[in-house]
Each structure stands twice: as structure tokens, then as C-alpha cells.
Amino acid sequence: MSSLPFQSGEELEELLLRVFLNAADSSPVQQRLALTFTIHAPSAWLRVDGRNGQTATLSRGDVARQQNSDLTFAMSGETAHAFWRGDLNTVAAMTAGKLKITGPLLRALALAPGLAKVQAAYRQETGEAGSDHQTVP
């Protein structure tokens, strides 16, 4: 695995904010959900709230941690990096306990079609835009 493009939780939160802003489009939110990504080693929190059906709002850190979400994705920084790059087999990661999803799993699976755009934005933001990655289910 390549070295991580972040050293602290704050750097990871800032990176993910840029990624989600770059991946955003102006069309209405398809899934009316709030998602929280909780990451350890380093500690980081990011919340994406699309419940209003219009534009998703982003929050990070304590603000993200204190709000309820429909789905929560918990993982380490290393697993998060692989997930956002598109290198993580999510089923294997869940089975191994590296990725924990709290909330309705079918709703989480419904997010898969939009994941490729966010992963491409992550690779671009981390300087890996030319890498040949594909989302691994």
C-alpha cells in the first residue's frame, strides 16, 4: 500500500472535504441520507447530509461526530485511503472487521453507483489521477 497522503485527522478531514466538494454536482441529491465517516488512526470525522433532497452539506470534526446519521462507515486511516482510492474490496473488509457499517446495509449498497466519482476526485486530489483504479465491490 502506498504511503498515506495525510498525517493527522485534521489533514484527512480537510482532504475529504476537498474531495466531496470536487465530486459534487448541482443536481438534487438522489439518496436522502446523512452519512458519517468515522476514521481512527488518525482520528477524523466527516458527515455528508443530503436529507433535504437538494444540496448535500458537509461537516467535520466535533460537529460531524455530534450529529445523527442514517449510515456510519467506521474504518482506520489506512482502510479509508484504500476505500477512497478504489482499491478496497468492501465485502472482504467488512468480513475482516476493517470496515464497519452501521445502518441499513441495502441503503449503503445503493450508494455504490456514485462512489466512482468520489473515488476519482480522491485520486485527483492526492495526485493519483493517472492511476488505473476501479471500484472493487
TrEMBL record:
Superkingdom of origin: Bacteria
Name listed for the protein in its UniProt record: SCP2 sterol-binding domain-containing protein
Organism of provenance: Deinococcus arenicola
Species lineage: Bacteria, Thermotogati, Deinococcota, Deinococci, Deinococcales
